[in-house]
Amino acid sequence: MAKPLKYNDEIERDIRLKLNEIQKELPKFCRNYFIGLENTTLPRTRLGYAYDIRLFFQYLIETNPVYSKIGIRNLEIKVLEEQSPMDIEEYMIYLKCYTKDGVIYTNNENGIKRKMSAIRSLYAYFFKKEIISSNPTLMVSMPKLHEKAIIRLEANEIVSLLDVAESGMNMTKKQLEAHKRTKTRDVAILTLLLGTGMRVSECVGIDIGDVSFEECQILVHRKGGKEVILYFGDEVEEALRNYMFERNDMHPAEGSENALFLSLKNSRISVRSVELLVKKYSMLSSTVKHITPHKLRSTYGTRLYEESGDIYLVADVLGHKDVNTTRRHYAAIDEERRRSARNQVRLRED
Predict the structure, then answer these.
(1) Within its chain, how far is the Cα of 124 from the centroid?
(2) Assuming Cys at both sites, which of 213, 244, 282, 344 could form a disulfide with 291, CB separation 3.0 to 4.6 Å?
(3) Which domains does the chain have, with CATH numbers?
(4) Neighbour-count burial of 21, counting CB atoms closer than 10 A to its CB (0-12 exposed, 13-18 middle, 19+ buried)
């Protein structure tokens, strides 16, 4: 009997299978492009690129009768050279709002830039290989991104969120019935996210064997397959121990025997389920902010930086490859620190 795959290996396998399916819908020459990306990008990145590249060719088919007769699969690589900078700019306008299968899709600056990254990557690959002689994407400016304020919970909002998860206050009778079965698990998940700053994908991927109460640490699997150890405090330990008492009596579904957090169906809880439970409790608590698991991560990062003042520590714990990413996120705190220092140094005694 084959040894069951670990959660992250299973996710990567499914992504690769999906990528293979999407590639069958793309022009044949795209195969070489994805082979070229194999050793420099993550499978999830390549899948995202595949979706965005498919959208680009679907657009060309819809707007050009000649291409429509040929079909996406049979388009030749010269189609890339046939697009002018103006054609690329028109596509970017299209991305702002378009209809597909009766559904309206919109993209802000971030969404457009992300989708264009895939197209620019496709062009850059064949241009570098000298398979095409022009790259119109280089002559088109990308959307200017506007910095968004980092949304995080204040201390009283954290208390309110956890209180609601523990008590079930403000819930309907139907919600309370489900809450009886999930309360301890939900409190453990919320406390873990708030107390370690881990990503929601890292949270759902935790196996029972990844947790060490003796060392107060959890082994998490990060993007790219990297494994790191995160340490947790007393509050997280208490919440996890409470959940483990219940988890030990559960009967996991096949394939989820090692999973730490289980759904009501006793299978490994999904990212979407955690997103929904965070949304549910945030709506029931006193906060008016739109809270997601990532906002809980930002909350932890903020509190850690406020307490330590060490941006490198925050970057390391959160798993940011570039400390400048962390610095941009918490620049407002730096600004407040600088403001508070204005009267710290006295030039003359009173």
Answers:
(1) 26
(2) 282
(3) 7-139 (no CATH), 155-336 (1.10.443.10)
(4) exposed
